[in-house]
Amino acid sequence: MKEDTDSTTTTPPILEEVVWRDDLIRWEGGLNVDIKKKSDADGDESSDDGQSFLIDPFADPDPFEMFHFDFDLPSSNNNNNNQQQVLDDTDNKDEANNNTNRSISLQIRGYKTDAEQIWQSTGLTLWRASHYLCEYQVEHPELFQNKRVLELGAGLGLNGILAWRLSCTACVQDDESHVVETPIDESASEVCITDGDSDALVHLRDNIERNRPTTTTDNTSKVSCHQLIWGKDSSQKFLQHIAHNQKYHVLLASDIIYSAVIVQPLWETVYTLLEKEGGVFVMAYARRKKVPVSIDLVLETAAEWGFGYELVKEDSEDGIWVYEFRFR
Description:
This protein is α/β, with parallel strands linked by helices. It is built from 10 helices and 13 strands. Strand 8 (about 190-195), helix 7 and strand 9 (about 220-225) form a beta-alpha-beta unit. The protein starts with 17 loop residues before the first strand and ends with a strand. Mean pLDDT is about 80; it is low at about 1-15, about 45-55, about 80-100 and about 170-180.
């Protein structure tokens, strides 16, 4: 990519979002679609392609669902010695429980899994691999402490929002047992949550606002939300205009493999945006009978792009695996 030699240009232009939904991949089989700028499409109330979905008179009149999560956090290393002293004192076990039982509560609003809207945008609900990845995130909060984190194909944003809240590492409880979160280093804590789907982005941004900590300081880690359609060219533009040429320490994704055609663009994106020194891509993959894309294809393509991988968590009975990918 040619560098800008004009010294008068200090800030790259903001990328305009486009109207794009993932059914264009699932039903048409490719990423090369005729997309419109969002501003051009806002006034279009009808579709000329004859593919508009008909209204189902038997559809659920209330297709929305609020998903509630409570994640228990491991105790801070700084307090381990104090907590052990409390545990050794049998008269203070209740106090020890109060000190160790910290949690993050999230509310994610989206559609029910059987809602007809899911046929157009799969990111409008939550899928099982995202729940499983949350477990891994809570078990390894150090992955997100003082890091630049980006979630790919976030959908409603569960994993990215949890990473954001986990990045606020100096957590204590106030008098009302609310978790007060402050990052150790404001300049190093940043979470960017992305999706390519226009409809998903609307709900994603709403969920970010819904889950801002109730008590914050000026040092609360930064969070942002942007459209990112996978592929080499779009990822390079994203790196320049949105990330200001700063790559990410951690990439995160779950339930993103639903068509073979997206595997190459996925790795083009990971290759472009992930830090080569010490960067890690954490991905949760769920086996599905109706999705003809095997984990073997994903792993083989990763190797072709120069990545090594490690299986770090699995539920073989339910068919969910979490992998960590790093540059070899």
